[in-house]
Amino acid sequence: MQFALPPRRSPHTLPLSRSSRMSSYRRKQLKSAAVLAFAILSLIYLVRYLYPSASPSVAAPVGTSGVVIVTLLDRQRFSESYLKKIVANREDYAKRHGYTNFFASVSDYGDAVGDAPMSWAVAPATRHAMATYPSAAYFFHLATNALIMNPTKSLESHILEKGRLEDLMMKDVPIVPPDSIIKTFAHQKENDVDLILTQDSEDLNPGSLILKNGEFARFFLDVWFDPLYRNYNFAKAETHGLDHIMQWHPTVIARTALVPQRILGSYSSDSPGASLDGTYKDGDFVIQFRGCVDTQGRDCAHELEPYYKLWEKKRQSD
């Protein structure tokens, strides 16, 4: 009688078992490494999201200007001869410093503005410029009632250079003068800034502002142009809308720097509401003829003429 012999244990059984255990250990190691890598990437994303100033600045590729000057031309309220002088002023300045001009007509945004005053068109026009030049680093909005008087000053040397804005920033001052209880942040740094404004004796001044390209810029313009504000019938339209946003939205204040009025938008002697030291003096960067188109007895072209001639002399002598 024959009995089946028990199966012989393969001499390779033990090594295979060890290999299996080693493979399991390696899989655990790889899984742990993957979890750690995911956690690190998630942390980096969170930091970049919560602190956008830590991300690199928007760089303009070759052939694209780093600064775009946004000018709205209102042909219903200003004469063609006046507007030609404004265009010449902007073109000369852009050529000197390698900037790009974005000219638009107020009427182009009639459908977007709706029944609100057309001065609200500054928001969609700036957004339009951003869509047209998505790689530009900054957008400099300058109202039609303003003239660049010191063309040798670039925005970089005048305001944007590292350390320069830090020196100019007005900290712990009322957002809306003279006695708003909401103030600019006392410990704000220039790296936190995406919007640069000035103010007169009564309000913020959107007629001359600098906006850094990026997510905040799009957010700010969307908030400012919200139908709720446009339909609220503010006495000074987009200016009072801006005053309101700055006082009630810490997210916006945290990214905004106020600079002295004469740095960004001096007023002519005929313009009401200049700050204590906000009236134009020779050598100032910009002069604004505030209210020249709305105030009875004033004429924008007449007020512009002596300053335009002075600018021409400066341009020819440089």
Which helices and strands, and how do they pair?
Layout: H1 13-50, E1 67-73, H2 80-97, E2 100-105, H3 110-113, H4 122-132, E3 138-142, E4 146-148, H5 155-160, H6 164-168, E5 195-199, E6 204-212, H7 215-224, H8 227-230, H9 237-248, H10 250-253, E7 256-258, H11 261-264, E8 266-267, E9 286-288, H12 300-317
Parallel strand pairs: 1-2, 1-3, 5-7, 8-9
Antiparallel strand pairs: 3-6, 4-9, 5-6
Helix pairs in contact: 2-12, 4-7
What does this protein look like?
By secondary structure, the protein is α/β, with parallel strands linked by helices. The protein has a single domain (67-317), classed as Spore Coat Polysaccharide Biosynthesis Protein SpsA, Chain A. Helix content is 42%, strand content 14%. The chain has helices spanning 13-50, 80-97, 110-113, 122-132, 155-160, 164-168, 215-224, 227-230, 237-248, 250-253, 261-264, 300-317; strands at residues 67-73, 100-105, 138-142, 146-148, 195-199, 204-212, 256-258, 266-267, 286-288. The strands form two sheets. It has a six-stranded mixed β-sheet with strand order 2-1-3-6-5-7, with helices on both faces. A three-stranded mixed β-sheet has the order 4-9-8. The chain is globular. The model is unreliable at 1-20 and 37-64 (pLDDT under 50). Belongs to the glycosyltransferase 34 family. Keywords: Glycosyltransferase, Membrane, Transferase, Transmembrane, Transmembrane helix. Pfam families: Glyco_transf_34 (PF05637). This is Galactosyl transferase. GO terms for molecular function: alpha-1,6-mannosyltransferase activity.
